[in-house]
Each structure stands twice: as C-alpha cells, then as structure tokens.
Fold this sequence. Notes:
By secondary structure, this protein is an alpha/beta fold.
Amino acid sequence: xxxxxxxxxxxxxxxxxxxxxxxxxxxxxxxxxxxxxxxxxxxxxxxxxxxxxxxxxxxxxxxxxxxxxxxxxxxxxxxxxxxxxxxxxxxxxxxxxxxxxxxxxxxxxxxxxxxxxxxxxxxxxxxxxxxxxxxxxxxxxxxxxxxxxxxxxxxxxxxxxxxxxxxxxxxxxxxxxxxxxxxxxxxxxxxxxxxxxxxxxxxxxxxxxxxxxxxxxxxxxxxxxxxxxxxxxxxxxxxxxxxxxxxxxxxxxxxxxxxxxxxxxxxxxxxxxxxxxxxxxxxxxxxxxxxxxxxxxxxxxxxxxxxxxxxxxxxxxxxxxxxxxxxxxxxxxxxxxxxxxxxxxx
Length: 346
C-alpha cells in the first residue's frame, strides 16, 4: 500500500480546526539525549504553543528490553521526576507529565514528588501511572512485580489522601502508613492522574480511579472500541470530574510520507507490535494500515490528517513520540509548531 495516510492525496486540504492539546515526549533517553537538547527543545515547545512535555520512567533499561519502540535503546535515561523539575524551571506554561510512573517507588514518595513538582511549577504537573513491564527494575528495589496492580491502586489512593488532607493514615495490602503528611500540596489541592496501558483492563482502571487514559502506540482500529468502552464506564462514575482521552503515537516527520516512513525500522516495529497482545490481537502479520495510529508519519499536512482521525475517535490530547528521530528533534518540533498546531488553534 501507499506510504501516505489512508485516503490522503497531495491536494487534500489541511485539517479543520478542533479543540485538541499537543504534547512532546522529550529526548531524555537514547544516545541523542542531552541537557542542551532538553533545554532548547522545551523552551522552543513552550514558545510555539505546545501544551505538555512528557518523560518516561525507568530505573534502567535491562538488556532483555533494549530494543523497543522500533529503536535500539542503549539504556541511557535520565530520572523522570528530576527531568520534569528541570523542564519546569526552563518553561512557563507547558504541563509536565510522566508517561508513565511505574510502581517501584513507595506511594508516599510519589505523592511528595508530584505535589512538589506541581507547587514548584505553578500547578502544571500530570501524574501518568501504570503497572510497568520490566521485572528486573522491580527486583532491583525489592518491590513485588506480581503485586503491580495493587501497588498502582494503593499509590493512587495514597496520593489522593496525601494531597487532600493535612494529616492522614493509610492501611493497604502493600502500604501501611500510620501517620503521614505532604506539604506543600498541589496548587489546586489535587492534580490529574492519567492511567497508561493498552488493554480493556487498563481502560477499566483509568475510568475507575484516574482522570484520564494515555495509551502509548495503539492503532486506530484497536483504540476505537476501547474508547467506546471507556465512555460506557464513565457513565457509571459517581464523580463529575473531567476525563481526558490521550494518545501517544510514534511519530516521524519529513518532506514526504516515504521519507518519514524510512525513519522507522519497520521490521522491528511490526515484530514488537505483534508481541503486544492488545495490538496484535491474534494477527500473524501487520500491514501499514494496521499500524496507523500506532505510527503516524509524513509532512505537516499528513500529520494534520492523522490528528483529525484521533479527534474523530474522541482523543483530545496527543503526545508526539519522536524517539526514532531524536537526532532531528528541534527541526521536528519547529515543523509541528508551525504546520500542525496552528491548524487546530485558530
């Protein structure tokens, strides 16, 4: 099939404007990461009207998982919450999120870290949380990998209590806090918690005890039924707090769709995508059409059309993951900021 987005032609008009927010996964990992690139990239994004900056969360990348997202990751990765604090000091309005914090920290420490980040940045923190997938990280800090689901549930519960009460106690299966207090607390008394994960079970967690869902690399055809399920579940929630549907597609930008596509190692991408059960779903092979939404690629007009497809599904916050081209990060941020964002902010 053609490397262009499905149904696209060179004469297609730019996307019509809709309310949507845009974020960037920052280059704080791989061999291209540097403090200079983080500084220039965050300040450029802030000036161009991006809405959020995001980091990953790993103690390390263990040898069994060096190749993921279609890249060969050498394992260099700066600590996520410290990186967010640094980005916050260098910017003025962008939100600062983790996609995603995994439960290899004590819940009290997570509550303190993000409350402090929110306080120091004037209310710009978003806590993305999920179960994680690398048993080696959990083993390294003696946290029970098999109890990840309960660790996530209790971490969220502790954060909510710590942020909402001057003094509190907590009694859970994994965490027991006879007395606790977090000060400073979040600027508004709370901050958004978004759940990361691809499965229908992840959608259930997100709608049950979080404020948003942020799947990473999920094709349109797999995202649509999950969003429908999320909307059904949200009808039964007792709270009226707003809920955010986000997406984090792996993104490549170039003058043409074919040039952009060449930035991906498609053999690696397809192999990993098939291995991810919610993406593969029993399929034995994947076409480019199957990967649309998991990957997005092309020039500014192509990317506008991909954004429109996310919006049509109900997504309102799109985080561009450009890990496969961090060596062209600043150039790509400028292109997104001048050719894509303005089409949706008129």
